[in-house]
Amino acid sequence: MTFHGNSRTVLAVDLDYFFAQCEQLRRADIKDKPVVVCVYSGRSKDSGVVSTCNYIARNFGVRSGIPITQAKKILSGNQAAVFLPIDREYYESISERIMAILRTHSTLWEQVSIDEAYLDLTPEANGDLDLAKEIGYKIKIEILEKENLTCSVGIGPNKLIAKMAADSVKPNGLTIVSSEMVRPFLDPMPVAKLVGIGPRTEQKLNELNIKRIGDLARHDENALIAEFGNNLGPHLKHFAMGIDEDPVQQRTTGQFSRIVTLKRNTSSLAFEVELNSLCKDISQKLETRGLRCKSVGIIAISSDLRTKNRSKTLDAPIFTAEEIEETAKGLFRSFFEEGETLVRRIGVKVSEFTTFERFKNDSVLTDFLA
Ligand code: DCP
Ligand code: CA
Ligand code: CA
User: Fold this and answer.
1) Which tens digit of pLDDT belongs to each residue from 254-313?
2) Which of 31, 39, 107, 349 gets the highest tally of CB atoms within 10 A of its CB?
3) Residue 170: nearest ligand to its CA?
4) How many angstroms separate the CA atoms of 342 and 346, rounded?
5) Catalytic site residue 23?
6) For residue range 155-207, what is the model confidence (pLDDT) as tens digits?
């Protein structure tokens, strides 16, 4: 018997200064220094942008997206500041382990980005926010104990409020916003804080004298439709009122791929070790997300940097590394038979996802994880 009726309990998790925190894990000596993770463009020594930075660097004014040269200027007086190149594969491997932890806490979950996920705790919490808070606390402890990382957690009646609750106290926060507290929580915030409002929408709203989320929630819907159209207008008003019906669910669209550079250029299938490791990574990612794929593709980047793709649609969805590898090998074989292309980098791509039926059943999920 459940008592939650129509109301939901949604939890959002967002890892703190994620890429920088990952770097600190493998470099004990930089923990107390400003750490800036950079996307170097390679054009000149310091060309590129800041991916993220730890909170010590943020205190000096460094932010995601600013030029590396600007970050270096800001931290020029700080001899200890550390600038590191982005290492996405490393962060992804950590992300996958975190996501695996998260999905043990709810059968209804959704990964939204490398460091962010939602869990629908409606059945677990049964309308009891104290219970939801306890689950949030357990999740934080588990991530800290197993992976040594801090995250911020938000709990609310939907994804929008859970996310904004998580963002409102960072780093290492745990914030609960009950249905009754939604409007008092949102109303005083500047409109720019509302999920989905970028600088252009913010400016337009400010021109209409809509400064706070509460102003937007109270604004005449037709006036918003006139300004923003039939879709965005009502959407903005609903969001400002804290209304979000979007369910927590695994997305089944999209694709993902892994690419590696070979030690030696080749025109034959002389990269079984690399291929095997790519397929294992892809398979693990499918498992983490509870997905199977119906299409497997290969990517071959030639020595003159031209990219070629081949793909195959399967009769039935697959997810094991062996099955993916077998299909990829077949594709590479026929690719090399077509001509003498000298290949420098290879990749494997999967798409056409279906959800993994077993994930829908709690008891079998535990078997699957064991
Ligand atoms: N990221 C990026 N470029 C951006 C924003 C983010 O490369 N403009 C990357 C680096 C971040 C990761 O995505 O570590 C997650 O982004 P978040 O927005 O969640 O930011 P952080 O986790 O770094 O910090 P916070 O503690 O504010 O969540
Ligand atoms: Ca984050
Ligand atoms: Ca995030």
Assistant:
1) 788 999 999 999 999 999 999 999 999 999 888 877 788 999 999 999 988 888 999 999
2) 349
3) 1
4) 11
5) no
6) 999 999 999 999 999 999 999 999 999 999 999 999 999 998 989 999 999 99
Write down the pLDDT at residue 49: 94
Q: Is the minimum distance from the CB of 15 to ligand 1 under 6 angstroms?
A: yes
- What are the Cα distances from residue 243, in Å, to 112, 153, 214, 222, 236? 19, 20, 13, 18, 10
**Is the minimum distance from the CB of 359 to ligand 1 under 6 angstroms?**
no
| Ligand 1: centre distance to CA 17 (Å) | 6
Q: How many CB atoms lie within 10 A of CB 14?
A: 21
Q: How far is CA 34 from the centre of its chain?
A: 24
Taking the C-alpha atoms of residue 62 and residue 72, their distance in angstroms, rounded to an integer, is 9
- Report pTM: 0.76
Q: Please name the residue whose Cα sits nearest to atom 23 of ligand 1.
A: 17
The single residue of 92, 116, 147, 325 carrying the catalytic annotation is 116
User: What single letter denotes the amino acid at residue 221?
Assistant: E
Closest CA to 349 of 308, 297, 311: 297
Specify the pLDDT at position 356: 58
For residue 10, what are the β-bridge partners? 120, 156
52 lines ligand 1 (CB under 6 A): yes
